Amino acid sequence: MARVDVGLARRVVLVGLAVHLLTLPVVTWVLLVVVRETQTNNFVQHVRTFARGVADGFEIAPVLGDTNNTGKLLDSVILTGEGVYAELVDNGHRTTSALNPPGISYSGRQDLEFSEHPDATYFIVLPINKVGHDAEVRLGFDKRPTLDDIARARRRILEVLTSYAALLLAIAVVSVHYLTRPLARLGDSARQVASGDHERHLSANTTIREVHDLAADLEAMRAELVGVNAKLRTEMRERERVEAQRHALESQLRRRQRLEALGTLAGGVAHEVNNTLVPIMLFAQSVLDALPPDSPSREDLLGILRSARRSKEVVKKVLTFSRQMNSGKRERLDLTEPVEEVVRLFRALAPASISVVKCIEGRCLPVIADATLIHLLTMNLCTNALQAMRATGGTLTVGLAPLTATGLEPAGVAAGNYMQLRIQDTGHGMDTATMDRIFEPFFTTRDAGEGTGLGLAVVHGIVESLDATLLVDSSTGLGTDFRVLFPAAEEQTA
Amino acid sequence: MTSPEGSPEDRSQTSSAVRILIIDDELDLLTALSGTLRRAGYGVRTAHSAERGLALLEQEAADVIITDVIMPRKSGIDVIATVRTLYPSTRVIAMSGGGSFAPSDYHPGSITTSAYLLVSERAGAHAVLAKPFEASEIIAVVRQVLGA
């Protein structure tokens, strides 16, 4: 994979510079050669034509042999400004112009080519064809103006080419900027999309067709991906919800199975204990009846009877957990009255450090229940709440409100209308392990002798027998929130 | 402890004409209950199974039958139904401590004392009594069914 470390702008400028670094010297050299050749050819052509005219003058005019006229003709070469040196050699006799500058003399050879010696004079020697004369005219021309012209032309060329290069560079930079700006914009948008802003539109805002088309294609791809992404998120949320619901139901099922197993066990044990208690109580009573009133053993027998009665009460509670309440009286019931009664009772019972708040909202929907069971259930939950706040104080809130479940709740509450009884405390709360076991009979976090561990087991039994749902939420140190959802009784037709 | 069933002590010889038959598979309970009722002046016989109880009934009628509900093989419900059919003048008291013999017998709502007693009432029992009970309670119930 090619290394990506040079931007498009820099790359284009570098390529342009490289191309011009190669071509500009060649172009410059060619132009300079052309200019020099043109200038020197013009010079040579001009001076040769002029020299031919001078030679023709000597051939036509009768000046050869006439020193005075020969001198005048030679002087005219210099006076016209065309030449800087003129001499005539006629039959070995050399005549020079009186206007020849002192520093210039014929070197003995004529120039066949134009050389660029600044101080040199270009000499032309032309023979004069005239009968009786062996003559030649030697003319010198100043090369400096031509050399100046060449130098000026060179400067111009360099200036023009330098300007061209600078202009080209500027155009390249501007063009590259014009080309890359929409790409940079597109890149920025793409990065923002990649970083999570999926609603950001990919647009280059350019008139460059290729870039515009690329942006349109990318935008179409983004829209497609956003759609797919949204669908995936929805599916993921749905899956998470289903998973949470499944988890809650599994947890509920496990707890239910455990409690049912315990219920079975408790029922079996209760049966055995109840049967055993009968002879204990009857035998004790029998012996008690047979003893004289002052017998010291009477107190012992009364102790047996007390213990047996206490066992009877414990078994009764265990059986409550085992759905003893199933045979209770069921009727359409407004929960407000039994709940308010419990609130009144707990306002009287609660210590000063605990405030009891009643919160009854909305229209109270009737439920199918037994007022005694509702009373017992609310009492047990409130007792549990008071115990949780005994050390720290706090607020016990007893709430009653209608609730409509959509069937999407994690705990698997079926869709429908419910009356929600809510008992909240601000006590020590529970951890997950404790919360998992609170409905088991004889499970208690209280000190020995302070609780039977049957209160919440009885609550569970009642909730199950009434086909209600019990939800618990608790955080260590923050308190506990019990919610009992009673299915609303169907509306009765008159 | 000797079995209360079939022993001479089974039959109380009291001046009372009231004859009570107790049926329960718990032998200690039979002994204790029969003793309690005898001391209260009733003539008592006992049986530790439903089959045995019905056989005793064939031999000699009873004024009151006190039967347990949950018993192996034949339940107290069967006893109540039979007695109510064959001996309509006999008063029947059902007693139960609820519970279940094994987890496989578990049916939600059916293992409890009150549920069994409810079924007993529907089967025709004149009174029901939840175990455990005290001497005074059972005597009161016996008097109640006898209309005393």
Report what the structure shows.
By secondary structure, chain A is an alpha+beta fold. Among the domains of chain A are: about 10-165, 2-Layer Sandwich (Beta-Lactamase), CATH 3.30.450; about 330-494, Histidine kinase-like ATPase, C-terminal domain (Heat Shock Protein 90, 2-Layer Sandwich). In chain A, about 55% of the residues lie in helices and about 15% in strands. Chain A has nine helices and eleven strands. Chain A has helices at about 10-60, 65-80, 145-195, 210-290, 295-320, 335-350, 370-390, 430-435, 455-465; strands at about 85-90, 95, 120-130, 135-140, 330-335, 355-360, 365-370, 395-405, 415-425, 470-475, 480-485. A five-stranded mixed sheet of chain A has the order 6-8-9-11-10, covered by helices on one side. In chain A, helix 5 packs across helix 9 (about 455-465) and helix 7 packs antiparallel against helix 9. Chain A is rod-shaped and about 200 Å long. Chain A starts with 7 loop residues before the first helix and ends in a 7-residue tail after the last strand. Mean pLDDT of chain A is about 85; it is low at about 325. Chain B has five helices and five strands. Chain B has about 150 residues and is an alpha/beta fold. In chain B, strands 2-1-3-4-5 form a five-stranded parallel sheet, sandwiched between helices. Chain B has helices spanning about 25-40, 50-60, 75-85, 115-125, 135-145; strands spanning about 20-25, 45, 65-70, 90-95, 125-130. The termini of chain B are far apart. The model of chain B is unreliable at about 1-15 and about 100-110 (pLDDT under 50). Chain B has a single domain (about 15-145), classed as Rossmann fold (3-Layer(aba) Sandwich), CATH 3.40.50. The interface of A and B includes residues 263, 267 and 274 of A.
